[in-house]
Amino acid sequence: HQADPRKLVQDAQAGGYAVGAFNMHSDETAQALVRAAEIAEAPVFLQVGRAIVPHMGLKAAYELTRRAAEESDAEVVIHLDHGPWDEVFEAIKLGFTSIMYDGAHLPLDENIRTTKQVVQVAHSFGIPVEAELGTIPDAGEDVDWSAYYTKVDEAQRFVEETGVDWLAVSAGIVHGVVPDLPPQPLDLQRVEQIREATGLPLVLHGMSGVAPDDVQGAIKAGVHKFNADTDLRHAFRAGLESVFAQGDRQLEEALGEGRARMIDATVEKMREYGVAGRASS
Ligand code: G3H
Ligand code: 13P
Ligand code: ZN
Ligand code: NA
User: Fold this and answer.
1) What are the structural domains, with CATH classification, of the chain?
2) Catalytic residues (predicted)?
């Protein structure tokens, strides 16, 4: 069933853990995330993200996710991930109960101005808003971190002026995984300073390929929603590949194995985040 997104994050903050937020890409992957939540007895954010929207359209992705959520006893939030300007309003109309508006590419004043408008509309429907400040690079990009990091004073101003519910910060983690590159050390001190300056639960994106110590450190520093995608997509793909490696097998068999591997990988993340066993019923 659908759950109250604010409560899930508040409970995580009070309980000293982080809720997992994972991207759906198809029927089977949405089912895998919900099934993992049932097995781990964990609440979960199902995210409709940047890959699925051009593939099937926002409405179809929403309907599929809603059906997966409502057929289950698990506590599920249907969340728009990295929503651009027009899409956040479309998502609110469709019935998403949680949204991220991503204005991180805009100059600070523009990010503040547009985020504030999104918050006003979303809050009038009771919907919480996650925003991004600082830039989260893609794996393999050669970036100057001093320009990408979220700055503490800007975060304080951003939160005061926009009224967002949760803030996604840039502190050394990238979207995706580069297997041969050592992970950039996470700047936990910065995360903690942002938490103190803003008082909000923080979000970290790009949690695939992050060292276990950093996962635990991030929770202690004030992060209570973790976004992960790549590790779970890789698990799904490994399932497909293992079946097709045996020859010309039924597509359903491959999709089933992909789903099974993704369930296991998601349960593992939920245990690591401390959210396993936190379902309220
Ligand atoms: O990315 C968002 C646009 O800058 C929105 O600007 O509030 O003038 O439509 P607007
Ligand atoms: P990863 O693919 O690195 O796990 O990042 C996912 C994400 O942040 C989705 O918003
Ligand atoms: Zn992200
Ligand atoms: Na990552």
Assistant:
1) 5-273 (3.20.20.70)
2) 81
